[in-house]
Amino acid sequence: MNLTIVPFGNGKISGNKVTCQHGPTECLGNSYEQCGIVHYPKTSQHFPYYYCLEKSGGKPNFKEAATKCAKASDMDISVIETCVNGDEGKALQKRYAQLTPSDHKYTPWVELDGTVTKQRGTFISQLCKAYKKAGGTKPAGCPKIDDEQVDAYKPCPV
User: Fold this and answer.
1) Closest by Cα among 132, 93, 92 to 112
2) What local confidence, expressed as pLDDT, does residue 155 receive?
3) CA gyration radius for the chain?
4) What band does 37 get if pLDDT is binned at 50, 70 and 90?
5) What whole-number distance in Å separates Cα of residue 83 and Cα of residue 39?
6) Do 42 and 125 form a contact (C-beta atoms < 8 A)?
7) How far apart, in Å, do the first and last CA atoms of the chain sit?
């Protein structure tokens, strides 16, 4: 399975200006996530960092939350912050805007095999059905997991 996370949400880009639905703090959080994903491309490393940041809600602030989440994910926060505070961070905002479908109606926007999925508690069951439909071997957690257990993954120190 390939997982691609595109932290941009309902942001907009006009010229060189990025505007996020929930203001500049959301844009900053997206940048921390984008830089973490790009500099640590292995899903096994950037997903715990991303998940941790999402669970923290950027509290008490994104710099502190990102520092804790990066440490817990064995990532170097200075690499991420250099990206966030430089031209690379600005370029990534544009790149991730291009990866976000312009016709999406909500976030998160989740596609499974090219089809927008229902979310909020049904993704795991849809994923397991997709493995079955494709004739693949379902992950070990599929027969045991129910939709209420989806939020059980909590590696976050914040």
Assistant:
1) 132
2) 45
3) 16
4) very high
5) 9
6) no
7) 28
Tokens of 152: 């059980």
Supply the pLDDT for residue 48: 92
Neighbours of 109 (CB within 10 A): 17
Alpha-carbon span 35 to 66, nearest angstrom = 11
The amino acid sitting at 126 is: Q
A 10 A CB-CB count for 49 gives 26
- The CA-CA-CA angle for residues 88, 84, 104, to 5°, reads 80
pLDDT at residue 72 above 90?
yes
Residue 38 has pLDDT above 80, yes or no: yes
Which residues have CB under 8 Å from 124's CB, separation 6+?
A: 141, 142, 145, 147, 149, 150
Q: In one letter, which amino acid is 73?
A: S
Where does the pLDDT of residue 6 fall: very low under 50, low under 70, confident under 90, or very high at 90 and above?
A: confident
Q: What is the pLDDT of residue 144?
A: 59
Whole-angstrom distance, CA of residue 95 vs CA of residue 83: 14
Judge whether 98 and 104 are in contact, CB under 8 Å.
Answer: no
Contacts of 16 (CB under 8 A, 6+ apart): 90
How many Cβ atoms sit within 10 Å of the Cβ of residue 76?
Answer: 12
